[in-house]
Amino acid sequence: MRSSRRIGLALFVVVALTAAACGGGDGDDGGGNGRAASSGCPVKALDSAKGPVRISVWHSLTALPKRTLEALADQYNKSQSKVVVSVENQGTTPTELHRKIDQAIPDRSLPALVMPDDTKTRFVADSGYFVPASDCFDADPEAKATLDDLLPIAKASYTLDGKLWPASFLTYTALVFYNRSHFQAAGLDPDKPPATISEMIDMARTIKQRTPQVSHPLVIKAQSFIFEWWLSGAGQALVNDDNGRGKDLPTESEFDNPTTRQILEELKAAKAEGILDVVPGTEGQVDHLLAMATQQSSMVVESSAATSTVAGVIEGTIKAEDLKEELGVDLPAGLKLDLDIGVGPYPGVKEPGRGQVGGNVVYISNTVPDEQQAAAWDFMKFLNSKPSQIRWGVEGSVSPVLKSVGSDPQMQKAWSSSLAGRWGKVAYDVLANIPTDFPGPVIGPYDEVRRAIERCLDRVLLNDEPIDAAVKEADANMTKALRSYNADVGG
Amino acid sequence: MSTAEAPAVAAPALTDADADSAAAPRRRRSSRVKEALFGYALLVPAVVILGVFAYYPLYRLVHFALYRPNRFGRGEVYVGPSNITRVLGGDEFKEGLWITVKFLLYTVPTGLVLGVLLALAAHRHLRGIKIFQGIFSSTVATSVAVASVVFFGLVNPKIGKFGQVGLIDLSKSSSALRGVALTSIWQNIGLTFVIVLAGLQAIPDQLREAAQLDGFGAFRRLYKVTLPLLAPTLMFLLVVLMIFAFQAFAPIEFLTQGGPAGSTETLVFKIFRRQDPGSISEGAVMALGLFGLTFVVTLLQLTILNRRVHYGD
Amino acid sequence: MATDAAVLPPDVRRRMLMGQAGWYVLLSGLSLLVLFPIWMTIVRAVSEPFVYIERGQPYHPVAFDWGVFGDAWREGNLGRSMLLTLAVTAIVTVAQLVTSVLAAYSFAYVRFPLKNVLFVLIVASLLLPIEVTLVANVRTIRELGWLDSVQGLSAPFLASAFGIFLIRQGFLGVPGELRDAARLDGFGHFAFMRRVAIPLNRPIIASFALITALGTWNQYLWPRAATTREKWETVQVALRSVSVQHPERFNVGVAAAILASLPILAMLIFFQKQIIRGLTAGAVKG
């Protein structure tokens, strides 16, 4: 038994290794050369379709935005009979959705529409498997008006190589949420939110001194986007080649720069002082919001996506049953959280609020039959229509991305009619006024870059490690990711 | 009777295993061949499944380790053995390995001790002992997912009942793994108890009684009689618990998603996160590393087990 | 050691009863290790989360909300996922039984060359568990188009090296006289298998089936990796969806976990002996 056992083991190891090594270049799966299945945007294909065309949308939305998307898809399906849209949740975090998209690329099993983070744009453009929206706008003159109606920052951000890539948008920006009663109790003006990082830290110090029961007045979730937006808000590029918007693909990270180090030093010092609480940046982590809810903290920076939920809960305008169903929060009827929260534009590094545009965008895949692409475009037009945009704004706490919607009386009325609305207006105003000279980086391997940045944040802010090593590591990893990506594009 | 039994496949009759009959050599050879084919035929389903889903993946893993797929599906790039050495020597793998080993160190010794403790306590004649035995073994009914949900409620830093206990704080890299390990430790109680109890029950009562008659106190009985006789069972349990530790995945996904700062990213977790074309090459190398680790550990244990069982202590 | 306590002198009897009481105390204390998390889970399931946290997370339920089980059932789509998991479990269990019995029989009773080598190869496959082969198997399933399907969920587990090992052991234990007698009666292999080998090994085969069913129902990693759409989630994966999507509403998550455990608990209660036999197979000689 013993000798045949050895023979057996040796056999399979040898066979496995030889087979694997010799099996060189037998190619991967059906992707092959992977150039676009079709080019241009076949908007007319829907007219010749027999019977309803079924398409699906992959997303990773949760709670209210998810409900709104489902409601809109439902409304669209009921309003016409040529297209049936099915909404598919592909994970509870954007990263999961991105991984699913990545995995579907080689065998081209993409659906007609995907709704990832807007950071996927470079990847989408380079893959050759998606239709740039500008092609559709060109082929469908009626829809041209939408293109001109887009917020300048959205157009600037999402235009690559002269083409606008996403066909629809769920825009957010970031805000600072602060507890006005804490401000008041500490002698700070409750109508003046912090405008820079230093101000946030100073105010936190004041609050801690005057009202020590607030254990960590400033709380931050160690998310990459917060850091990225501080950098781009200060005019600091994340990668070379004009922050990725130049002629070629970026090849070097510029993460290791004075602004990065300055921000990290300030935050590290604040944490050491005991006035800053740092929460891990893992997706789905809501401890920083809970810290605000339990009044252990007074200020937090977060995406504007949170506005309607937070506001509704505070005002009590969100009914208990709605919360139960839509958010999964159980409040006995009539209970309100006793918080007085205000919002302000995203604090900058050296100067006040300069957020970025962020959120989800929708891409049309060209690996599905022409009629599905046309159907997808039709659905996009529906989502971009004013009524839908208003619905997004009112129900999904999304900021309108069309100027005409921003100035529409109905939208204005919705904004002024509730706390969530007023906050939504703050977010929109920020977006509408972001200068378009520095719209943020364009990076192919964005998720890897984000991971590198978050690892750096974790090391410095959670593990209290020295800044130098952490920044250098992130910088090196980012450059490696960029180069590997470029090799794949070239190949 | 036998005609009614004739199966669709021409199964040869039971051959005489050690016959050295004087039948004609040709007939013997052809019936041997038929029997061999029959034997292989019976194996085909299992061999095919194991071949496709255990061995073929091994080949593919080696292939992915040597050829990195293009993330856009445009073929693949040869990265060669240097890729393997680079990943295995790299920070990510070493981190994953260390975390997996730590997880093992947290769960295996405690598992063994708890199992022995509970089994010794419940291996006696008392009224209602079966109830206690039932309670101790109940965690075999829990899945990793259920156990993770149970412990989420106990150790989550913000909403867990014991979320603030320093030793198992999930929000600090230094302690998060312990909190996660608690899930496995608790879940393993049932299985370890059942196994050790079976081992205890296999020890003949006369041995213990004899020891008692010889004046051995309870503790001496334990050391000199019970534990040595339990050794094979404990070795088996050791292997089982180590394998469980290598497989740890669900508690991490539920409780920490690998955080904070990657301090709970076991090897399996890292591999799971590397399925997309851009990172599958790395994932494959790590999987091969895990394979190597399992291989070495199993081999070690088999040698120890063989030696101890055969030559005593 | 059932000594009749009444026969002993009073002080010895008292000591013995106190000893027994001591054991009961110890055993109850140890039971807490197992029961405490379960109790707290039940408490958290039936209490309303906000109120529960507000009251400092007591050790007893507050603000009972029995509707949580219905909510968990609906939100986690437990009906569908349980059905799906049941289907997969049934397929895998039957398949493993069939493939293992056939292969084990072959190893035990049929002569053919390279038998030992093949056996070693099969047992060696235990070194290639799903954790190691994951990324490759997911790719294979993808290429076969079996992602999000019953076949994709079951395929890698249709055979079991452990099962082959176990059942072969059992078959080898069948006394030689029975084989001789069967041969004399003119039994072919299948007849012998059906009428002698399998019936004699029914206990171990049944235990193996139960262990396989238990393991398949409780499986997490593979179903998680082999499915992308919500409606193809098995029960265990659904638990994650329910907990992750509403972390602050943890009562639903734990209620779902309780519901997911019930079938297995039922199995454990009814088939306790066989399951334990299956779990301990290999641990104890003979």
**What is the residue-mean pLDDT of chain A, rounded to a whole number?**
82
What is the end-to-end distance of chain A? 50 Å
- Principal-axis shape of chain B equals flat
The assigned structural class of chain B equals: mainly alpha
Count of strand segments of chain B = 2
CATH topology of the largest domain in chain B: MetI-like fold
**Could you list the spans of chain A in which at least 5 consecutive residues all have pLDDT below 50?**
1-37, 319-336
Mean pLDDT of chain B: 84
Please report the two chains with the greatest interface, counting residues with C-beta closer than 8 angstroms to the partner's C-beta. B-C, 103 and 103 residues
Strand numbers in spatial order across the main sheet of chain B: 1-2
Instruction: Give the name of the CATH superfamily of the largest domain in chain B.
Output: MetI-like
Description:
The complex is a heterotrimer of chains A (491), B (313) and C (286). Chain A is an alpha/beta fold and 491 residues long. Helix content of chain A is 49%, strand content 12%. Chain A is built from 22 helices and 13 strands. In chain A, strands 1, 2, 3, 4, 7 and 13 form a 6-stranded mixed beta sheet that branches. In chain A, β5 and β6 form a beta hairpin. In chain A, α14 runs antiparallel to α20, α19 crosses α20 and α21 packs antiparallel against α22. Chain A is globular and about 70 Å long. Chain A starts with a helix and ends with a helix. By secondary structure, chain B is an all-alpha fold. Chain B has 2 domains: 77 residues, no CATH class; 226 residues, MetI-like fold (Orthogonal Bundle). Chain B has a two-stranded antiparallel sheet with strand order 1-2. The N terminus of chain B is likely disordered. Chain C is mainly alpha-helical. Chain C has 2 domains: 64 residues, no CATH class; 208 residues, MetI-like (MetI-like fold, Orthogonal Bundle), CATH 1.10.3720. Helices cover 73% and strands 0% of the residues of chain C. Chain C is flat and about 75 Å long. The interface between B and C is large, with 103 and 103 residues.
